[in-house]
Amino acid sequence: MYRTVIVFLLLFTIACGQADRVPEGVLSKEEMRDVLIDMNLADVYSSESGDHGMPLLDSVRQGKVKIYYTQILQLHKITVKQFRKSYDFYESHPDRFKEVYDMMKDVVTADKDAIENGNLVKEYINNPQTPLPFGKNVLISAVRDTIIPFVKKNKRVELKR
Hints:
Layout: H1 2-17, H2 29-47, H3 58-75, H4 80-91, H5 94-116, H6 119-126, E1 138-141, E2 147-149, E3 155-157
Parallel strand pairs: 1-3
Antiparallel strand pairs: 1-2
Helix pairs in contact: 2-3, 2-5
């Protein structure tokens, strides 16, 4: 009888100690947060209207999203399979998924506050070599300050004139 109780308590203790861990091959909460933030931004970028304010065709928008998602996964050095496994894991654990979304909200709120306070713009005005205040995962041309999302982190490229 005592052995059964001891075994049960031991298993319970081990299980509780593993509660916050994720299985091997699954992105951590922080990694998942960063990928999902970028994917949400990609959805916004892809929804921007075309020339003269005309809405983009859905097929064009979906093509842009596919390209952005591929770039995001490459940027974070993960495969589609890893992302799908991680997404499925978090989707099947709503409490952990909520934590990821709460973390996303905190990051986006902090970025929004920094932009609204003008800190990033002031930094750029004082030193034009700093990245423009458009997020961490954008490529910015030093010639035209053109924003190209999800290519390299905080890098500037020289575009031919």
